Amino acid sequence: MYSSSTEFLIRFNDLQFTIHYSDLAIQIKGFTSVTHNDEVDTTVVLPFIYEDLDGIEFARGDPTSKWSSIRASMGHLEPFNMKYVVVGNEGCGKNNYLGNYLKFYIEIRRAYLYIEIISNYNGSSTPLDHPADMYDYRIYTSANDMFSRVTIFNQVTRNGPKTFVSEYAVTRKDVGQGSLLVALAEAEFLIGLENNRFSEVSY
Question: Could you tell me which InterPro entries the record lists for this protein (predicted)?
């Protein structure tokens, strides 16, 4: 899975990258919390949703529509195979995230029935209390802790949203200039993900 972060529409070069290296593209919207220090109130979030929908149209739309005609004029007549949208970027701790997420979810689902929508909330330990096709899981930790997470998804229900592991890495003092321990810890974590095929991995 290939991941693209954007603040206006979708970066065209990122979409082109998916042609050669992946058949999946993700648009990450940060407007549910704008930045880690600022938030958009749910009562005024609608313009950001419309911008998001314009971005999806740019990537997926028929070349005769407004935004996808711009894509076509840039040399890419066929729609990109964009299947996923992540709503927010590490926004689940923000006061307005859930309210904004639900508005994004409703409007994206109404316009694009088959796009899978990904929540920032981690559903690996506690079931989500809102609709989502997948949830975003990120981990930066020590080598020992990474080893301990090899089986973390073994007990996750297969009936709910799937897992999208968007970022993972061994960090802190274990890294140094690179080590076999770090490589093995990350590889072991990936083996655990491979054993749980309901997961998607990026990064």
Answer: ASD1_cat (IPR055235), GH (IPR017853), Glycosyl_Hydrolase_51 (IPR051563)
